Amino acid sequence: MRGFMGLITVSVLGLAGAVVPLQGAELAWKALSVRVYDNADVPKAALRGALETAAQTLRPADVEVTWLSCSISSGGRCAEPLRRGELMVRLVRSGKANAGDESLGTALVDPATGTGVLATVYVDRVERLAQGSDGDLGTLLGRAMAHEIGHLLMGRAAHAVHGLMRPRWTRAEVARNVKADWGFDAPDVRAIRARF
Questions:
Q1: CA–CA separation, 102 vs 122, rounded Å?
Q2: How many other β-carbons are positioned within 10 Å of the β-carbon of residue 113?
Q3: To 10 degrees, the CA torsion angle through 33, 39, 42, 45?
Q4: Whole-angstrom distance, CA of residue 102 vs CA of residue 94
Q5: Does domain 7-194 have CATH number 3.40.390.10?
Q6: pLDDT tens digits, residue range 132-169?
Q7: DSSP code string of 78-96
Q8: pLDDT of residue 99
Q9: Could you tell me which of 133, 147, 130, 106 has the C-alpha nearest to residue 11?
Q10: So what's the pLDDT on residue 74?
Protein backbone atom coordinates (compact mmCIF):
# COMPACT_ATOMS: atom_id res chain seq x y z
CA MET A 1 0.00 0.00 0.00
CA ARG A 2 2.99 2.29 -0.13
CA GLY A 3 2.74 5.02 -2.67
CA PHE A 4 -0.82 6.10 -1.95
CA MET A 5 -1.11 9.79 -1.18
CA GLY A 6 -3.13 11.06 1.75
CA LEU A 7 -2.66 8.04 4.00
CA ILE A 8 -3.71 8.03 7.64
CA THR A 9 -3.36 5.56 10.46
CA VAL A 10 -6.51 4.23 12.13
CA SER A 11 -7.20 1.79 14.93
CA VAL A 12 -10.37 -0.30 14.84
CA LEU A 13 -11.15 -3.44 16.82
CA GLY A 14 -7.59 -3.69 18.07
CA LEU A 15 -6.00 -3.32 14.63
CA ALA A 16 -3.52 -0.54 15.30
CA GLY A 17 -1.27 0.99 12.72
CA ALA A 18 -3.21 0.07 9.58
CA VAL A 19 -2.64 2.51 6.74
CA VAL A 20 -5.75 3.58 4.84
CA PRO A 21 -6.05 6.07 1.96
CA LEU A 22 -8.96 8.44 2.50
CA GLN A 23 -9.66 9.92 -0.92
CA GLY A 24 -12.20 7.17 -1.68
CA ALA A 25 -13.96 7.56 1.66
CA GLU A 26 -16.32 10.23 0.38
CA LEU A 27 -19.84 8.92 0.11
CA ALA A 28 -21.02 8.05 -3.38
CA TRP A 29 -22.13 4.44 -3.11
CA LYS A 30 -24.80 4.27 -5.81
CA ALA A 31 -21.94 3.91 -8.29
CA LEU A 32 -19.45 1.98 -6.19
CA SER A 33 -16.13 0.85 -7.65
CA VAL A 34 -14.21 -1.83 -5.76
CA ARG A 35 -10.58 -2.64 -6.43
CA VAL A 36 -10.03 -6.34 -5.72
CA TYR A 37 -6.50 -7.47 -4.87
CA ASP A 38 -6.40 -11.28 -5.03
CA ASN A 39 -3.26 -12.18 -3.10
CA ALA A 40 -4.61 -15.67 -2.31
CA ASP A 41 -4.75 -17.10 -5.84
CA VAL A 42 -8.48 -17.81 -5.71
CA PRO A 43 -9.52 -20.12 -8.58
CA LYS A 44 -10.90 -17.98 -11.43
CA ALA A 45 -14.36 -19.63 -11.44
CA ALA A 46 -14.69 -19.15 -7.67
CA LEU A 47 -13.62 -15.49 -7.95
CA ARG A 48 -16.15 -14.86 -10.73
CA GLY A 49 -18.84 -16.47 -8.56
CA ALA A 50 -17.75 -14.39 -5.57
CA LEU A 51 -17.99 -11.11 -7.47
CA GLU A 52 -21.45 -12.02 -8.82
CA THR A 53 -22.67 -13.06 -5.35
CA ALA A 54 -21.30 -9.91 -3.70
CA ALA A 55 -22.91 -7.68 -6.34
CA GLN A 56 -26.27 -9.44 -5.97
CA THR A 57 -26.06 -9.19 -2.17
CA LEU A 58 -25.37 -5.44 -2.28
CA ARG A 59 -28.06 -4.66 -4.88
CA PRO A 60 -31.08 -4.59 -2.47
CA ALA A 61 -29.36 -1.71 -0.65
CA ASP A 62 -29.28 0.20 -3.97
CA VAL A 63 -25.53 -0.35 -4.36
CA GLU A 64 -24.33 -1.06 -7.90
CA VAL A 65 -20.77 -2.35 -7.98
CA THR A 66 -18.10 -2.20 -10.65
CA TRP A 67 -15.18 -4.54 -9.91
CA LEU A 68 -11.62 -3.69 -10.87
CA SER A 69 -9.11 -6.54 -10.67
CA CYS A 70 -5.78 -5.26 -9.36
CA SER A 71 -2.43 -6.68 -8.32
CA ILE A 72 0.76 -5.38 -6.74
CA SER A 73 2.19 -4.80 -10.21
CA SER A 74 -0.97 -3.37 -11.78
CA GLY A 75 -0.56 -0.02 -13.38
CA GLY A 76 -3.22 2.35 -14.61
CA ARG A 77 -6.11 3.08 -12.30
CA CYS A 78 -4.97 0.46 -9.76
CA ALA A 79 -1.85 2.53 -9.08
CA GLU A 80 -3.73 5.80 -8.60
CA PRO A 81 -5.09 7.08 -5.28
CA LEU A 82 -8.64 6.02 -4.61
CA ARG A 83 -11.32 8.23 -6.10
CA ARG A 84 -14.66 9.25 -4.67
CA GLY A 85 -16.88 6.16 -4.43
CA GLU A 86 -14.01 3.64 -4.50
CA LEU A 87 -13.09 0.94 -2.01
CA MET A 88 -10.47 -1.82 -1.84
CA VAL A 89 -10.93 -5.48 -0.94
CA ARG A 90 -7.87 -7.63 -0.30
CA LEU A 91 -8.19 -11.41 -0.61
CA VAL A 92 -5.43 -12.95 1.50
CA ARG A 93 -4.53 -16.07 3.45
CA SER A 94 -4.50 -15.52 7.20
CA GLY A 95 -1.35 -17.45 8.04
CA LYS A 96 -0.76 -18.72 11.55
CA ALA A 97 -0.80 -15.43 13.47
CA ASN A 98 -4.07 -15.78 15.41
CA ALA A 99 -4.83 -19.50 15.31
CA GLY A 100 -7.96 -19.09 17.47
CA ASP A 101 -9.42 -16.29 15.35
CA GLU A 102 -11.76 -17.62 12.71
CA SER A 103 -13.29 -14.31 11.59
CA LEU A 104 -13.64 -14.36 7.83
CA GLY A 105 -12.49 -10.79 7.35
CA THR A 106 -12.00 -7.28 8.63
CA ALA A 107 -13.05 -3.82 7.56
CA LEU A 108 -11.09 -0.83 8.78
CA VAL A 109 -13.55 1.87 9.80
CA ASP A 110 -12.46 4.98 11.67
CA PRO A 111 -14.89 5.13 14.62
CA ALA A 112 -14.57 8.91 14.94
CA THR A 113 -15.55 9.69 11.33
CA GLY A 114 -17.33 6.52 10.20
CA THR A 115 -15.08 6.35 7.14
CA GLY A 116 -13.02 3.54 5.73
CA VAL A 117 -12.01 2.16 2.36
CA LEU A 118 -10.15 -1.10 3.06
CA ALA A 119 -11.64 -4.53 3.67
CA THR A 120 -9.76 -7.81 3.94
CA VAL A 121 -11.20 -11.31 3.47
CA TYR A 122 -9.27 -14.38 4.66
CA VAL A 123 -9.71 -16.88 1.85
CA ASP A 124 -8.30 -19.87 3.78
CA ARG A 125 -10.90 -19.39 6.52
CA VAL A 126 -13.69 -19.10 3.96
CA GLU A 127 -12.38 -22.28 2.29
CA ARG A 128 -12.47 -24.17 5.62
CA LEU A 129 -16.03 -23.04 6.30
CA ALA A 130 -17.14 -23.97 2.79
CA GLN A 131 -15.50 -27.41 2.97
CA GLY A 132 -16.90 -28.12 6.43
CA SER A 133 -20.45 -27.37 5.31
CA ASP A 134 -20.46 -28.49 1.66
CA GLY A 135 -20.86 -24.84 0.72
CA ASP A 136 -19.76 -23.28 -2.56
CA LEU A 137 -16.47 -21.37 -2.21
CA GLY A 138 -17.43 -18.63 -4.67
CA THR A 139 -20.81 -18.02 -3.03
CA LEU A 140 -19.40 -17.94 0.49
CA LEU A 141 -16.45 -15.76 -0.54
CA GLY A 142 -18.85 -13.29 -2.18
CA ARG A 143 -20.98 -13.17 0.96
CA ALA A 144 -17.89 -12.50 3.07
CA MET A 145 -16.85 -9.71 0.68
CA ALA A 146 -20.35 -8.16 0.82
CA HIS A 147 -20.28 -8.37 4.64
CA GLU A 148 -16.99 -6.47 4.88
CA ILE A 149 -18.04 -3.94 2.21
CA GLY A 150 -21.24 -3.50 4.25
CA HIS A 151 -19.19 -2.35 7.23
CA LEU A 152 -17.44 0.23 5.04
CA LEU A 153 -20.70 1.45 3.51
CA MET A 154 -22.42 1.77 6.89
CA GLY A 155 -19.35 3.36 8.46
CA ARG A 156 -19.39 1.13 11.50
CA ALA A 157 -17.79 -2.01 12.84
CA ALA A 158 -20.88 -3.16 14.75
CA HIS A 159 -22.66 -6.36 13.78
CA ALA A 160 -26.34 -7.24 13.47
CA VAL A 161 -28.16 -10.04 15.28
CA HIS A 162 -29.59 -11.49 12.05
CA GLY A 163 -28.77 -11.54 8.37
CA LEU A 164 -25.52 -11.09 6.50
CA MET A 165 -24.05 -8.71 9.07
CA ARG A 166 -24.13 -11.14 12.01
CA PRO A 167 -20.63 -11.60 13.47
CA ARG A 168 -20.21 -15.39 13.10
CA TRP A 169 -21.42 -17.82 10.47
CA THR A 170 -21.80 -21.46 11.42
CA ARG A 171 -21.39 -24.55 9.29
CA ALA A 172 -25.06 -25.36 9.97
CA GLU A 173 -26.15 -21.94 8.62
CA VAL A 174 -24.04 -22.37 5.50
CA ALA A 175 -25.39 -25.88 4.91
CA ARG A 176 -28.99 -24.77 5.58
CA ASN A 177 -28.58 -21.82 3.14
CA VAL A 178 -31.71 -19.92 4.23
CA LYS A 179 -32.09 -16.73 2.18
CA ALA A 180 -32.70 -14.53 5.26
CA ASP A 181 -29.25 -15.43 6.61
CA TRP A 182 -27.44 -14.02 3.58
CA GLY A 183 -28.97 -10.60 2.97
CA PHE A 184 -28.80 -7.26 4.74
CA ASP A 185 -31.58 -6.90 7.28
CA ALA A 186 -33.86 -3.83 7.06
CA PRO A 187 -31.92 -1.64 9.55
CA ASP A 188 -28.66 -2.31 7.66
CA VAL A 189 -30.26 -1.43 4.31
CA ARG A 190 -31.52 1.83 5.84
CA ALA A 191 -28.06 2.55 7.28
CA ILE A 192 -26.40 2.06 3.89
CA ARG A 193 -28.98 4.15 2.04
CA ALA A 194 -28.78 6.93 4.65
CA ARG A 195 -25.10 7.46 3.82
CA PHE A 196 -25.63 8.05 0.08
A1: 9
A2: 12
A3: 40
A4: 9
A5: yes
A6: 898 899 999 999 999 999 999 999 999 999 999 999 99
A7: GGSPPPTTEEEEEEE--TT
A8: 57
A9: 106
A10: 82
